[in-house]
């Protein structure tokens, strides 16, 4: 079974978010980058499936050379090899086109993305990739079993869950539930050492146009200081008269 | 040219947030001097014409075996067909779980650019520019596209419903989209009689400060009085006190209610990422140093076991006097 895990290289969850160049760019200065947390669930699931059924796990990222440490971490966690599409990931459509170009001839049975990345939160790449490859898609996926060429997929719907069977190959947008947090793989020393020798291929980007541009960034207005109240009655009045929330 | 809007339904009835999506589409149509055509996919029990109230001038229904269960690709094909037939430049949908699957597929099928998670009306139409959330609610980004066609999804509850009081004609579209034999929905398990969290306008949530699962009765009573959904923090769902489906936060469900009441939740950054889109946040915590107070609009420092029953009573008398 061949599995492709799409990895976003994102600012650490706790990063301070700042913008530069007249608020037209995200300030990467001093920011620690990590594997997108939603992708980590997919990566661990892929490794578990490989251990149970055999096969290979390939991690892929669209980015410049600065994303290689993130791909090396995916290798240290247990991916067999990695591909970096050498391009600036300008928008989701551009990224989906790059991933589709690699996946098209790759013979992958399963392609896993995160439900969204924690930087731009677009939740676009997985669905676009599935549409470009004309493959079934499920997101946000919180359970997956594979039996031969059939996947049983559990995904969240509003207020519940939906279970489907799907014929491989498929594209998933994953989150916690694909594996539990306690089961996430952390690189050990052996993994880190072997990751250095695992193949990390660089491929050049195919021609594709970004369809959207982020033109201006802003931080949400600072919240006014919390209004502390002493009584439940006072809170109810404030919620009604001031916040108009009830 | 028309603005197309996906009119999402559940068990044949339009979802509440469909009214919000239609209202948003109406705003776009007014600015562009055109009309709104809503597309309802799958068997329908609701009267399609009711969407006229929120600004749709026409509702196109798409029914048939291919739409008996949800399939994002098949549904996106049908919506793209209607958009093409009507010469639509803009397609609007709500960022529900189904909407989040349809949106990106639809944009590819319609040859459109896609801006997801819009939280405002477009600031400009040429080029189309709209504001959206990013960085897990720690940033805002204005996205722009020069594409002729744009799919835009809106954050549920972010923009509200506007009644315009018009009327809608109803027609049907016979889609060429065939059922996808590669996908079979075998079970749908949806909590009955409760408001799905992403749609809830009011949410009462609790954390480890509740000390034990049996203490959730008081949270449910408070939610009942408000007509709110209930939610919980991650540690609580990890321990198994509450189901994972109630976990709100970065790895759980992201919500944007108009009122979020957090009881006994300290407010870790991952929790805030899932709830800070709430318009008003109330924090009840006995620790005055709890980081959540920094993100809150209103706070009560006190023991949840004393404050929550008092708040429930105060709300009951408030409601009785309305």
Automatic annotation (TrEMBL), chain A:
A GO molecular function held by the record:
electron transfer activity
InterPro entries (alphabetical): ETF_a/b_N, ETF_b, ETF_beta_N, Rossmann-like_a/b/a_fold
List, for all copies, the residue spans of the domain called Electron transfer flavoprotein alpha/beta-subunit N-terminal: 23-212
Q: Which Pfam family is an annotated match for this chain, by its short name? A: ETF
**Keywords recorded for this protein, A-Z:** Electron transport, Transport
Stored CDD domains: ETF_beta (cd01714)
| Similarity field | Belongs to the ETF beta-subunit/FixA family.
Quote the protein name from its UniProt record.
Answer: Electron transfer flavoprotein subunit beta
Automatic annotation (TrEMBL), chain B:
User: Key word Aminoacyl-tRNA synthetase present in the record?
Assistant: no
**Obligatory cofactor(s):** FAD
Q: Which InterPro entries match?
A: DHS-like_NAD/FAD-binding_dom, ETF_a/b_N, ETF_a/FixB, ETF_asu_C, Rossmann-like_a/b/a_fold
Entry cofactor note text?
Binds 1 FAD per dimer.
Tell me which Pfam families the record gives: ETF, ETF_alpha
- GO BP, sorted A to Z: fatty acid beta-oxidation using acyl-CoA dehydrogenase
Q: Which SMART domains match?
A: ETF
Q: Does the keyword tRNA processing apply?
A: no
Q: Where is the Electron transfer flavoprotein alpha/beta-subunit N-terminal domain?
A: 3-190
Which species? Phaeocystidibacter marisrubri
Q: What is this protein called?
A: Electron transfer flavoprotein subunit alpha/FixB family protein
Keywords tagged on the record: Electron transport, FAD, Flavoprotein, Transport
* Similarity field: Belongs to the ETF alpha-subunit/FixB family.
In its UniProt record, a GO molecular function of this protein is: flavin adenine dinucleotide binding
Query: In which residues is FAD bound?
Result: 208, 264-271, 285
